[in-house]
C-alpha cells in the first residue's frame, strides 16, 4: 500500500463550476429525442440505393460534367432522338455525379442519409414551433415518415426537393402571426367549458382595423424580410433541383389566399383587404417565389413544362403517376390519415387557418390524382394536424408526460446559476453525446474518419439491381438496339457499356408515344411482339425473369434467339444469325439453346 | 421586423392592385407567348404549293424495247368495274398512268377520273354507293383516308396521299369530303399531324414529305419529336431487309426519292447522303447475288436465290411475289443514281423476265396482280425515259389513247 500526499482542498474548488450554459443540460425527453434522430440516421444510412431513376440522374450529371452543357435531347435513349429535354433536375444530377465521383456508391448513400436527416430535422423544427412539445413533434415526424415512406426511402432528386419543401414550411410557420407570447399556436391548456382566450382569437380573427389605426401585431407576419429572402433563395434553388417546385408555389398561394379569405371575412371591404399587411406580405412572398423559380436555364419554360408534365400520356402508365387507389400503394395510409384527422378535429378546439384548409385540400387532390404526391401531402398533413395534436395533448395528457419546450424558458439568471431546472442533468447530456458518437461510429459515413473499408456493391445497392446483367453486357457489349425493361434501363446506362442503346429508361416521358406502346407490346409479349422487335431491329433482349414470365418462356422456345447469359434475376438473349437459325432448325443440332450460356452465381459481386 | 403594413397601407389600394395586376399580367403574357411558341412546333411547317418532280433519268433499251413496252403497258390499263373496282387498284393505276392519261373508252378511267374518285366523296358515292363508308374522313387535324378496311379503301397508310403527290397534285387541289370542301393540303396536314417516326408504315409518308416540304427540312410531330429527312432515312434503313411492305422495296424507293430530291433542294446531310448511297449499294449487291438466272427475285431476295424457274405455292415464291420483287427492284433502280445500279445484264434479265411474264399472263391474272404489275409497268417505262402516258399504246387496241402531260 502506498501513501500519497494530496494538495489541500481549497474551499472554492469544492464544487465543479459548469462552463457551459445550463440550457445544454438535457432532460430525459431530450435524450429520447436525440435517440430518435440517431436511430433514424442509422436507418437511413443502411437503406440500400434502390434501382430506380437514380442511375439515370447520375448518368445525366456525368454527361453534363463531361460535356459542360445541359442536354438538349436524351443522351441515352436513341429512340428519343429529336425529343426536347427540359432537364428540371439538372442541379440534382450534377450533385449526384459529383458525389459519385468523389466517393462512389457510399457517397451517394451518405448524401441520401444526410439530406433526408436534414429534411426531417427542419420539419421537426416546424413541428416544435407549432406544438412546443417534443413528444408531439416526434409523433408528427412519425406521421410524416409513415405517410411518405414509400417515396422517402428512395434516393432521387426529390430528396433535395423535400428538403426545400421543409425549409419553406419552416419559413411559413415561423412567419405566421402570433398573439402575445406566441399563444396563437401554443395555446395554454383550455378546458372546453372555458371561453377561448382573446389572445387566441385575435391571432386569426382580429377585429376590423381601420387604416388609420396602428396595425395590430396579430395581423403582421413575423420576420417578413426573412420570409421573402428565404422564399427567394429556396425557390430559386428548388427550381433547379427538381420539378416539384410548383408544390412550393402552391403552398405560398394557399397562404396568400388563406390570408385574403380571413381578411375578407373580417372586413368585407376590398380596400382593407388590400391594405392588410398579412395579405401584402404573402403576396410579395408569392411573387418573389414565382420570380425566383424563373432563375433557371430554361426561364419560364421550366414552369410551363412542369405544369404540363402530368399531361404526358406515357407517364400515366406508371404507377406513381396514376390516381390513388385506396387498397393500392399509399391508399391505406392516405385513408387512415383522413380518419385520423376527422377524429382529431372532432376533439380539437383549435381553429383551423384557411391556408391549412386550402393546403390540405389541394395536396389531397394532388395525391388522389397521382400517388407520387404523397411526399408533399405527408408534410402538409403533419403541418395541419400538429397544432391540434398539441392541443389535445395538453388537454388530455398529464404534464409530466409532455415535458418539452412549453416549459418556461430559462432566463439568463438561471443559465448563470449553478442549479439546473427540474429534470435536467448534465449526465443526460453526456449520454446524448455518447449516443450521437455511437451512431456516427456505426454509420458508414464515419469510415473515412474512423477507418474501415467501404461496403461492397452488393451491400450498398438494392438486391434488385441487375449487377450481373450489366457486368455481362460490359464483358460482351451488345451491338445495335437492346430491348430492356424500363426499370433496369437507367442502371444499364450507368453500369453497362458506353455503346449501350437501351429501348427505354425511366425517362419514359421522353420517348415518343409509339415507342412506349411498342415497348409494352414487347414487354408483355403481346400479339405482334416479334414484329415490333423487328421494326426496331432489336438484336439483344434483357429480360427480368420475375416480372416478364411470358416473354421469358417464349424466348426460351424461340429459334430466333439464343440465351447468352442467365441468372436467377434475369437473362440476356441475342438474335441468331441466319446460319445459327438454320442450325437450330436442323434436327441434328443441339436442342438446348442455353448450351453455352454464362451463368452467374453472383459470387463475383462480393469481390 | 419591417413595418410592411403601415408603410404600404398609405398607398392607395387601387395603385397597389394595379401594380400587382400588371406584374401578373406580364408574367401571364410571357407564359402565353412561350406556350404559343412551343405549340407552333407542332403546327404544319411551310409547304410547297406543288410537289417536286422526280423524273426518269435513263433510256436503256436493253431493259425493254419500244415494241415490248407498248405491248406490255397496253395490257396494264385498269378496267373500270363500278363498285367492284378495288380502290387500291385505282391509286396504283393513277400513279402508274399519271393524271395525264386519258381514255375514250368508258371501260377505262382517265387519270383525272381516277384522281376524282380518290379526292371527291360525291364521285366515290356514285361509284360505291351510299352504304359504303366514305374513303375520306374528316378529322380535327385535316382529312384522313380509310385504310385496309375493304375494297373501297386504301391499301397502306398514306399510300393514296403519296400517289397524289407523285402525280403532281398541288396543295390547293380541291378535296371534297362528305362534310366539306377543302384541299389536298388538309390531307397532308392530317398525315403530318398523325405521323410517328416509329409507325408501322412510314414509307409513303416519308416520300410525300420529301416531295412537299423542301426547302423546309424540319418539323415537329404530334409526339413532340423533331423530324428531319436524316432521321426519316435512319428509320427507313433501321429495319433488316426484307422487312417492310413489298419486301422492303418501298423503303428503298423512298430513299431513292430522298436522294433525287436532295439533288434539287438539299434535304439531307452529307453524311446521311453517303450512308444512303452505301445502303443502296449493299442492297444492289444482295440483289445481284441472289438473282435467278431467269432474271427474277422473290421474297427472299436479300438472303437467297430462288430455287426453281417455275413459281411454287410457297408464300414469297408465287408468281405474284416474283413480279412484286422484280418489278419493284427495277423501279427503284430506274430512279436511282447510276452509282448504285447493278450491271446491265442484271437489269436486262429482270426487264425481259417481266415482259415475258406479263405476255404470258391472262387478263384475270393481270387483274389479280394489278398492283404489283403497275410497279413493273412503271419501271419498264421509266427505264425508257418516259411516263406511261407518254407511251403510244398498241394500235391493236384503239379504244385508248395517251396524251402528253401538260407542260409544267
Care to describe what's here?
Chain A is mainly alpha-helical. Chain A has two domains: about 30-175 and about 220-415, no CATH class; about 465-605, no CATH class. In chain A, about 55% of the residues lie in helices and about 5% in strands. Chain A has 25 helices and five strands. Chain A has helices spanning about 30-45, 55-65, 90-130, 135-150, 155-175, 200-205, 225-240, 245-265, 270-275, 275-295, 300-310, 330-345, 355-370, 375-395, 400, 410-415, 425-440, 445-450, 455-460, 465-475, 485-495, 515-525, 530-535, 550-555, 580-585; strands spanning about 480-485, 540-545, 560-565, 570-575, 600. A five-stranded mixed sheet of chain A has the order 1-2-4-3-5, covered by helices on one side. The longest helix of chain A has about 40 residues, at about 90-130. The radius of gyration of chain B is 26 Å and the shape is globular. In chain B, strand 2 (about 135-140) and strand 3 (about 140-145) form a beta hairpin. Chain B is mostly helical and about 400 residues long. In chain B, helix 10 runs antiparallel to helix 11. Chain B has helices spanning about 5-10, 15-40, 65-75, 85-95, 110-120, 120-130, 160-165, 185-195, 205-210, 230-240, 250-265, 270-290, 320-335, 345-360, 365-370, 370-385; strands at about 100-105, 135-140, 140-145, 175, 180-185, 220, 225-230, 400. Helices cover about 50% and strands about 5% of the residues of chain B. In chain B, the strands form four sheets. Chain B has a two-stranded antiparallel sheet. In chain B, strands 2-3 form a two-stranded antiparallel sheet. Chain B has one domain (about 50-395). Classes of the chains: A mainly alpha (about 600), B mainly alpha (about 400). The interface of A and B includes residues 83, 219, 220 and 276 of A.
